[in-house]
Write a structure and sequence with these properties.
Layout: H1 3-6, H2 9-12, E1 26-27, H3 38-43, H4 58-68, E2 75-78, H5 81-92, E3 96-100, H6 105-112, E4 117-121, H7 130-140, E5 144-148, H8 160-169, E6 173-177, E7 199-204, E8 216-219, H9 222-228, H10 239-250, H11 252-275, E9 279-281, E10 288-293, H12 296-305, E11 308-309, E12 311-312, E13 320-324, H13 328-345
Parallel strand pairs: 1-11, 3-4, 3-5, 5-6, 6-7
Antiparallel strand pairs: 2-8, 7-8, 9-10, 10-13, 12-13
Helix pairs in contact: 4-10, 5-6, 11-13
Bound molecules: 4'-deoxy-4'-aminopyridoxal-5'-phosphate.
4'-deoxy-4'-aminopyridoxal-5'-phosphate binds at residues 31, 80-82, 103, 148, 152, 177, 179, 204, 206, 211, 216.
Amino acid sequence: MKIERLVRKEVRSLRAYEAKEIPCRVKLDANESPFDHQETLGKIKGIPTNRYPDPEGKALKREAARRWRLKQGQILLGNGSDELIYYLITTFGGPVIFPEPTFSMYGIIGKALGEEVTGVRLSRDMDLDLPRMEDAVRKHRPKLIFLSIPNNPTGNCFSSEKVLRITGMTKGIVVIDEAYQPFSSRRGYIPLLRDMENMVIMRTLSKIGFASLRTGFLIASEKIISEVNKVRLPFNVNSLSQRAACEAFRNWPVIMKEAEKIVRERDALFRELDSLEGVRAWPSEANFILFQVKDARRVWKALLKEGVLIRDMTGTFKDALRVTVGREEENRFFLDRLKKVLSRWSGSSRRGVSN
Ligand code: PMP
């Protein structure tokens, strides 16, 4: 039986999101936090396993609303923000546009749902290319524009003037994906929601120590939230995640201290990385750094042999690798092994090898 024939055309041509589990000593590939909060789970008692979770996640919304100064009706919970991307595209449909390179799930989900998706190349300085974006908006009349700010994988924040210009000119929804906002020196877009009725914001706990629990937040006007809520699967966030996320909000100062630590480590790592011969690192406002190095694919493989797993971005961006900021000792280990790999190849042996 040819199963492929039964699969929808749009899905047949897709490639699954790559989330490989590769054994390694130091894991710096998935933009996770190096700080584990297992003790939070120990505090959680009395979850009946035979009952469905609170379908609305009321207690969690209360905590989130207090933290971000919102009404509870402005929040929709997701099983990670990935699920919220699904819901947004299911609710509004396409065309979907986003700058490129960016987080791959906007395109993957858009295509899976059979919508027209268009990537618009970033300018050389990794900012939004405003004329190109404006042209794309006029040409495609998108229902949804996804902007990851800070952007994954480039690490920078797009110019807010450009973001506001695009938000002002489109008749569609602009989704600001703030997965990495805790590491950014910028203020973020939540305070602007009041004046921008077509703006939607996504937040997640995945980058600040709770990736295994899959908890994301869609933040928008009550009107938008009530529309998206129509396509939400019942009980999409399990009881354990709801309770643990409430604890995370109560523990917010500790979590923010960890984010500050990561920012300090990131800046130190950036300086060292960028000072290495043959390496060009991109300044980052997130918990990862994109860098370019000759023979990047080969460097990636050699690092893995040394026990360090980072992200190979060569499929998206010439000679690019992305390293997540870990604990001090992990970053040190990564740098030492990178130096070792590069010094091994310095001189003639590195010449002539390409991707
Ligand atoms: N948005 C961006 C920009 C991301 O990089 C990621 C994770 N890689 C996500 C969303 C997904 O986050 P979550 O774990 O909440 O689904």
